[in-house]
Design a protein that fits this description.
Shape: globular
Largest sheet: 5 strands, mixed
Number of helices: 5
Helix content: 25-40%
Structural class: alpha/beta
Distance between the termini: 28 Å
Strand order of the largest sheet: 2-1-3-4-5
């Protein structure tokens, strides 16, 4: 999670919403990224989606079995959908997102019993540091 927070700081330095994500299997980083929606002019260039893509390329497989995704902010609907589709078994996130979070705040797509895959969800890891980075970022833009 510390690496995800470092990536979030890198996103902020690039004037992106400060979110970082890392996909790990057995202590090996398979993919990592920070938000790049502005830099890439791509609304889907969220940290989680980019880290998932990198991990899938590293493994040569779309199924990211036996992995953990660490992310500084609770995943949105798009990212939660990608997590479920990638079959990531465990998601660890920092700050909750009451306006868009799909890991238990607004809804819980990551653990929806109607879907064919559900994730273990661990919340609140480095939550205050992640939340403060986001608060500062948005405060500076107002």
């Amino acid at each position: 999670m510390a690496r995800a927070l470092e990536l979030a700081h890198a996103a902020r330095a690039g004037e992106e919403v400060p979110v970082g994500a890392v996909v790990v299997r057995e202590s090996v980083v398979l993919g990592e990224a920070h938000n790049r929606t502005v830099a890439d002019a791509d609304p889907t260039a969220h940290a989680e989606a980019l880290a998932i893509r990198a991990a899938a390329r590293a493994l040569g497989d779309w199924r990211l079995l036996d992995t953990t995704l660490y992310v500084t902010l609770e995943p949105c609907a798009m990212c939660a959908g990608a997590i479920v589709l990638a079959r990531i078994p465990r998601v660890v996130y920092g700050a909750a997102d009451p306006k868009a979070g799909m890991g238990g705040s607004l809804a819980n797509l990551l653990q929806d019993a109607r879907l064919n895959h559900r994730c273990e969800v661990v919340t609140g890891v480095l939550a205050e540091a992640s939340a403060e980075l986001l608060r500062t970022f948005f405060r500076e833009r107002r």
